[in-house]
């Protein structure tokens, strides 16, 4: 087996993912100092999802892991550059959004293939839900560990 894990095509797709994320961030007026970081979050999300997918993980689980990556990196960057987390999250999920799958779903319905449309639609919805769940879990984990570390540093405990 003389095949490399990532090819020149993959590098081109990663650059395209960066460009799409960056342009999306420009369109939504993300502050200039965060544009490159948002682009890198999106690129990283795509790379993580692609890598996990190539390991044989299902597309829904890959999307979940990609969503977790976006949330965790976004939480870190938001604290680092003192900006809202949503600045990084909204742009960072752009490469993960299953737009081509949604298009394929609609195409199946238009072509009269309702059963294939339902199957593709279900997968599209599951991928979108997995991204959301990954964002929720990843962000929660980072905030919980940060809070626990802060509590240990100050010697306080929350008894609520």
UniProtKB/TrEMBL annotation:
Keyword annotations from UniProtKB, A to Z: Cell inner membrane, Cell membrane, Membrane, Transmembrane, Transmembrane helix
Q: Quote the InterPro entries the UniProt record gives.
A: ThrE_2, ThrE_Dicarb/AminoAcid_Exp
Q: Where are the transmembrane segments?
A: 6-27, 34-52, 58-78, 85-104, 124-142
Q: Where is the Threonine/Serine exporter ThrE domain?
A: 15-138
The record describes its membrane topology as: Multi-pass membrane protein
Task: Please state where this protein is localized.
Answer: Cell membrane
Question: Which family does the similarity line name?
Answer: Belongs to the ThrE exporter (TC 2.A.79) family.
In its UniProt entry, what is this protein called?
Threonine/serine exporter family protein
């Amino acid at each position: 087996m003389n095949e490399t894990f990532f090819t020149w095509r993959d590098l081109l797709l990663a650059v395209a993912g960066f460009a799409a994320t960056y342009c999306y961030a420009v369109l939504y007026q993300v502050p200039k100092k965060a544009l490159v970081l948002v682009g890198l979050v999106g690129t990283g999300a795509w790379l993580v999802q692609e890598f996990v997918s190539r390991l044989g993980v299902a597309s829904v689980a890959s999307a979940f892991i990609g969503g977790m990556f976006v949330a965790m990196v976004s939480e870190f960057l938001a604290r680092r550059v003192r900006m809202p987390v949503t600045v990084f999250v909204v742009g960072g999920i752009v490469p993960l959004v299953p737009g081509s799958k949604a298009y394929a779903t609609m195409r199946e319905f238009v072509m009269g293939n309702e059963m294939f449309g339902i199957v593709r639609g279900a997968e599209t919805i599951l991928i979108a839900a997995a991204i959301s769940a990954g964002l929720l879990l990843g962000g929660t984990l980072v905030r919980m560990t940060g809070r626990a570390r802060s509590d240990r540093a100050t010697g306080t405990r929350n008894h609520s």
